[in-house]
Amino acid sequence: MTARPVLVLNAGSSSLKYAVVRPDTGETLLGEHLERLGTDDVGAALDRLVARLAAAGIAADDLAAVGHRVVHGGDRFVAPTLVDDAVLDGLEALVPLAPLHNPPAIAGVRHALAAYPGLPQVAVFDTAYFADLPAAAATYALDREVTARLSVRRYGMHGISHEHVAGRAAAFLGRPVEELDQVVLHLGNGASAAAISGGRPVETSMGLTPLEGLVMGTRGGDVDPGVLLHLLRVGGLSVADLDDLLHHRSGLQGLSGRQDFRDLLAAVDGGDADAALAYEVCCHRLRKYVGAYLAVLGGADVVTFTAGIGENVPRVRADVLAGLEQLGIHLDATRNQVRGGPARISADDSAVTVLVVPTDEELSIARQVVALVGVSRP
């Protein structure tokens, strides 16, 4: 029996990846990664992929289901979930927690429902992996009655990627994931870090929303809440202004006017002072999180870089880990020139193994979808 392929839609804040994946073999029959998309481009991109599948002769009867990456599931969705009207309503209700990410995912669900009526649609949530995050890591030190009433906690994101990469890193090393303490750095336009012990997360950088943590393309990550109060009280910003600032005019974009990392590096190399500062702030924040997570874990076996920047920008890996030799991290400059992977980039005498491991959210989603719907054919 061969599992039918799954159409996976992975709509991000500025990109759309889709793939037709055989979950048993990992083979991608058809796929595309569209980048630098604006909000208005997502619908057109979804129409394009439906037309491309039709041209390739891939019909609904050829598919097991459609799997959708959804960033935020709140405290309601903690496992892959078949989509119906009630679930769609639930996803809409969660938009305020991930306003850059949940809307394109919901658009993908609606397009797929129209294009493939009757085919199972499954939402797979980035937050689900962190649903059992230890209470000490998940809890904000705020009034407990307020947080309980509004379901305020640290949910974490990029869980699909972190779980997949942690497992793949263990397989690359030939060790059970249950034996390893790992720090995984998912670095793309959105970025997050996770501390993983025995295959389960014990800490992560994103929180209630994807705004917390590392410096990202348009999001600044950690910020003193007092700054936000100051902007509201003294700066004259409205709540809508603040929302726009935090989601669209912060991070690399806010510091340098460039959110794409390739454009940022070109500006750095061209002598742009704002771009250089943005790059330094980004690397400093990452280095701080690596050190903190080594402390949380009591030392790590593995530090792994993944996603577009993590997999393909050697200078970031070198600059982030520079000066951490006393913590047992020694890069090999030649090995670190690799792009892609999986590959070891640490020196032979490094106490902590440093890896580059490509993420494959689409394969992970496809396998979770088939595990739920159980559709196969001869």
TrEMBL record:
The name on file for this protein is Acetate kinase
Which keywords has UniProt assigned to this entry?
ATP-binding, Cytoplasm, Kinase, Magnesium, Metal-binding, Nucleotide-binding, Transferase
Q: Which gene encodes it?
A: ackA
Tell me the GO molecular function terms: acetate kinase activity; ATP binding; magnesium ion binding
Positions of the catalytic residues: D126 (proton donor/acceptor)
Give the species.
Nocardioides marmotae
Q: Which reaction does it catalyse?
A: acetate + ATP = acetyl phosphate + ADP
PANTHER family given for it? ACETATE KINASE, ACETATE KINASE-RELATED
How the cofactor is bound: the record states: Mg(2+). Can also accept Mn(2+).
